[in-house]
Amino acid sequence: MTLIAAITLGTGACAFQPYEAMPTTPTQWQRRQDEIVRRDEERARLCQMMNKDTDRYRRDCRRPGDPR
User: Is the distance from CB of 61 to CB of 50 less than 8 angstroms?
Assistant: First the structure.
């Protein structure tokens, strides 16, 4: 009984993941790349205004390879 419940919960969690179809045309790929660039620029802009000593800055603004 426990095994059935675990399987049901495990597969149910996968069902609610948002599905994002991969682009199929060059225009869709360009829009995707433009959105990625826009999000990164917005993140960088917000990080410039943020206090660098806060936990939020360390969590949201640090990238792998950044000097500590």
Answer: yes
Regarding pTM above 0.70, the answer is no
Q: How far apart are CA 57 and CA 50, in angstroms?
A: 7
- Can you count the helices (H) and strands (E) in the chain? 3, 0
Contacts of 32 (CB under 8 A, 6+ apart): 23
- Give the type of residue at 32: R
Residue tagged 């682009």 (tokens): 23
pLDDT digits (tens, 9 = 90+) for 10-30: 666 566 667 778 889 999 999
